[in-house]
Specification:
Pfam families: Methyltransf_4 (PF02390). It catalyses: guanosine(46) in tRNA + S-adenosyl-L-methionine = N(7)-methylguanosine(46) in tRNA + S-adenosyl-L-homocysteine. Catalyzes the formation of N(7)-methylguanine at position 46 (m7G46) in tRNA. This is tRNA (guanine-N(7)-)-methyltransferase. This protein is of the alpha/beta class. The protein is built from 8 helices and 8 strands, in the order H-E-H-H-E-H-E-H-E-E-H-E-H-E-H-E. It has an 8-stranded mixed β-sheet, sandwiched between helices. Helix 6 links the parallel strand 5 and strand 6. The longest helix has 14 residues. It is globular and about 45 Å long.
Length: 247
């Protein structure tokens, strides 16, 4: 492991906005912060928004600065990348932003029922291989995780360059009959991108330079709690995304 990574890991532990639990604190048990983000972390009762797979935290920071009426938490497992966002929040003294280092599969160990108002998923790994479909962050498996922590009318936002993941998410929405507010396959080309959607992560800037259109989906779970697995016929279609761009 490089010295820079070790330095960042160490500095993460000094940031008040950064929570890095041990595996034992979250595996098959509830973390002490579960159900206490309002009073124990943000010290207010404003709505909580999560960014899943936040990377460097660009969206978490940007959303927090644009909307002080809500609280934002960036979640990822890669601490060296998250360091950038946590350092920015610390240096700018942004009171309504924080970071949680954990695997998204363990998210229900950290948030109580109805504790989260909204979820952003920004440029996740689309998990293109069919055998990895369950790892897609809009798969039925993950929707069942989100259903346990979102408010009844909570929204899920997906922003991605992957036409495959975009189509897959639409298939999931249609299969379960979920309320879908927006499904746009080219937010810049169509002029749909507003101030918030125009925030660009490092990955997004790279994809735009490669000429890949950026898609956006906004949907809710419609009160559903159980999402059974189903096979999507679209996985039989050869993937045309630029997978190498993500490595």
């Amino acid at each position: 492991m490089g010295k820079d990574k070790l330095k960042r890991f160490a500095e993460n532990l000094t940031f008040e906005c950064f929570i890095q639990p041990s595996f034992e604190e979250a595996f098959r048990c509830d973390h002490p912060m579960k159900g206490h983000w309002h009073d124990g972390f943000f010290h207010n009762d404003r709505p909580i928004v999560l960014e899943l797979g936040c990377g460097k935290g660009e969206y978490t920071v940007a959303l927090a600065e644009r909307d002080p009426s809500r609280n934002f938490i960036g979640i990822d497992i890669k601490g060296a990348r998250m360091w950038r966002g946590a350092k920015t929040v610390t240096e700018r003294k942004i009171p309504n932003a924080g970071f949680l280092r954990t695997r998204i599969e363990m998210i229900n160990s950290f948030f109580a029922e109805g504790e989260v108002d909204e979820i952003w998923i920004t440029f996740p790994d689309p998990q293109l291989k069919t055998r990895r479909a369950k790892k897609r962050l809009t798969s039925p498996l993950f929707l069942s995780y989100y259903a346990k922590l979102l408010t009844p009318d909570g929204k899920i936002n997906l922003k991605t360059d992957s036409q495959h993941l975009y189509a897959y998410t639409q298939a999931v929405i249609n299969h379960f009959g979920l309320p879908c507010e927006v499904a746009n396959d080219d937010i810049y080309g169509s002029g749909f991108a507003d101030e918030v959607l125009s925030v660009k992560t490092a990955y997004e800037q790279m994809f735009l330079e490669r000429g890949l259109p950026i898609t956006y989906t906004r949907f809710a779970l419609g009160g559903q709690r159980q999402f059974e697995w189903f096979d999507w016929e679209g996985d039989d279609i050869p993937e045309k995304d630029n997978e190498e761009a993500r490595k």
